């Protein structure tokens, strides 16, 4: 077994998740998560030490099977980077729209963390949840996304206190708008032109995740807010 810390990153094939994997690859053993097995396999080929975790996070049975197949003895870090935008005006959203967004942004986070607890406890590991500025301030339209991120924030707060006696740290990272495929989708919904230069780089968020994972054992980064700096013209 590798002596390097083992980190599982969901949503690791693109966007923020991919940037996190790129950042950690030099000194961590990666487990790259994603829904599409081919995309996950291709992502793993980018790194010297990586293995796949291919599962639809909305399928509880599939997630449990995928965790069992990993056969983890220890897990030093679990980074929940997979997320669903779920944009739409309140009057247009169905119950299924709400359910789909919460399945990915809240339920999957809770369930995968639960399944990984024995391996996290063995390593005194760290759980990092990629939240959003929308988990701090809610604006419409798009309330379903904000509601799911507020719920994820409450979940991380509760997990942090409940898992502390087991030696597990829990951090919540709240980026502002980031130059990813999700941002392109959001700009389209808002009827705006997309320009990556207006937004945070995924690599900047990855730096905050590394800080949470590698903090000295006496410290826990409870919540990190990463906002666009002067070089980004968009302040959302």
UniProtKB/TrEMBL annotation:
Domain Ketoreductase: start-end pairs: 5-208
Q: Which InterPro entries match?
A: KR_dom, NAD(P)-bd_dom_sf, Sc_DH/Rdtase_CS, SDR_fam
The reply to whether Oxidoreductase figures as a keyword in the UniProt entry is yes
Specify whether Chloroplast is a keyword of the entry.
no
Q: Which domain of life is it from?
A: Bacteria
Keyword annotations: NADP, Oxidoreductase
Q: Which SMART domains match?
A: PKS_KR
One GO MF term on file is: oxidoreductase activity
What protein family does this chain belong to? Answer: Belongs to the short-chain dehydrogenases/reductases (SDR) family.
Q: What is this protein called?
A: SDR family oxidoreductase
């Amino acid at each position: 077994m590798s002596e390097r810390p083992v980190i599982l990153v969901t949503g690791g094939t693109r966007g923020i998740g991919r940037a996190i994997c790129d950042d950690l690859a030099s000194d961590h053993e990666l487990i790259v998560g994603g829904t599409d097995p081919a995309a996950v396999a291709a992502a793993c080929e980018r790194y010297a030490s990586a293995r796949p975790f291919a599962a639809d996070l909305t399928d509880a049975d599939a997630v449990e099977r995928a965790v069992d197949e990993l056969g983890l003895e220890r897990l030093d870090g679990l980074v929940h980077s997979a997320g669903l935008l779920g944009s739409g005006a309140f009057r247009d959203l169905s119950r299924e729209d709400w359910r789909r967004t919460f399945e990915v942004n809240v339920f999957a986070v809770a369930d995968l963390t639960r399944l990984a607890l024995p391996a996290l406890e063995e390593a005194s590991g760290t759980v990092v949840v990629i939240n959003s500025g929308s988990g701090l301030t809610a604006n419409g339209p798009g309330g379903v996304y904000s509601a799911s991120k507020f719920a994820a924030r409450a979940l991380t707060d509760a997990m942090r206190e409940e898992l502390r006696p087991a030696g597990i740290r829990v951090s919540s990272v709240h980026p502002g708008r980031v130059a990813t495929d999700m941002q392109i989708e959001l700009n389209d919904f808002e009827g705006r032109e997309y320009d990556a230069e207006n937004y945070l780089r995924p690599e900047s968020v990855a730096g905050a995740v590394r800080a949470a994972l590698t903090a000295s054992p006496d410290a826990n980064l409870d919540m990190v807010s990463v906002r666009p700096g002067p070089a980004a013209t968009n302040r959302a």
